[in-house]
Task: inverse folding
């Protein structure tokens, strides 16, 4: 009962803080629209790079353009949702350096909700929109013998992937507490992770594929379930049911990230400033 009450309290605090930032950003609506559009264009340059690559080759690692667009759309959309919800976690290090993190500790609201909603930016909707557009194009372009399980896996991948990336954001924030910043390390696993997943696993070495499958299970955002949808063999041997465990992996990642956050918070020592 206590855990449920704390969760509801955290969600309420998050909603109130995020709402404050949304109202602030909507004060200048023209600026907001231009910023969202600019964000959409900037994030779209990633896929433009892939299109330029395919202007010179017919396939990449044995994967066609629509298949890679499928990977890209899943990764970009899932990461975009996590970035919208928790993308401000990388400012935690700066807060610890200037001493403002201590202020969050004495407020009557869960610290994680305060950090997650800090500087909530609707402009990040541009990344989600761009990823969803590419995903939509991929879904009508790929040659797949669709079945009910395959069709259901698509939204499951997006939701589970967003949860996995969110867990990485929280775990990275916990690491920042231990390291007294190191936001760059967190970004290597979040922004770097989504870039990695935009390309097929066949272009990477098997050791790297094993690492993002068994150690930091980002492969379950799209690589593993997408291989099932596209009827492609995965570079390393996995049982057939592995394509459907993304929700379980997401739950496990969230639980572990929550534990890491609590340990990090208990170990925090004020800067004294």
Result:
């Amino acid at each position: 009962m206590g855990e449920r009450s704390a969760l509801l309290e955290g969600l309420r605090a998050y909603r109130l803080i995020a709402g404050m930032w949304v109202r602030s950003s909507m004060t200048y609506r023209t600026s907001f629209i231009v910023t969202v559009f600019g964000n959409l264009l900037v994030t779209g340059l990633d896929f433009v790079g892939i299109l330029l690559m395919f202007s010179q080759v017919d396939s990449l690692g044995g994967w066609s353009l629509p298949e890679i667009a499928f990977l890209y759309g899943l990764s970009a959309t899932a990461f975009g949702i996590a970035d919208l919800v928790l993308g401000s976690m990388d400012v935690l290090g700066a807060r610890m350096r200037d001493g403002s993190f201590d202020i969050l500790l004495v407020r009557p609201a869960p610290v994680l909700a305060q950090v997650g909603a800090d500087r909530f930016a609707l402009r990040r909707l541009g990344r989600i929109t761009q990823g969803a557009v590419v995903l939509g194009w991929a879904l009508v372009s790929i040659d797949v013998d669709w079945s009910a399980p395959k069709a259901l896996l698509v939204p499951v991948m997006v939701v589970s992937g967003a949860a996995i990336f969110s867990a990485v954001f929280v775990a990275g924030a916990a690491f920042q507490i231990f390291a007294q910043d190191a936001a760059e390390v967190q970004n290597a696993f979040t922004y770097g992770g989504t870039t990695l997943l935009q390309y097929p696993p066949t272009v990477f070495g098997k050791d790297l594929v094993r690492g993002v499958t068994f150690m930091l299970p980002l492969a379950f955002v799209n690589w593993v379930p997408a291989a099932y949808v596209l009827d492609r063999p995965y570079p390393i041997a996995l049982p057939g049911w592995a394509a459907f465990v993304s929700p379980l992996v997401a739950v496990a990642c969230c639980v572990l990230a929550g534990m890491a956050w609590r340990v990090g918070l208990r170990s925090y020592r004020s800067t004294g400033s």
Summary: Residues 28 and 34 are 10 Å apart (CA to CA).
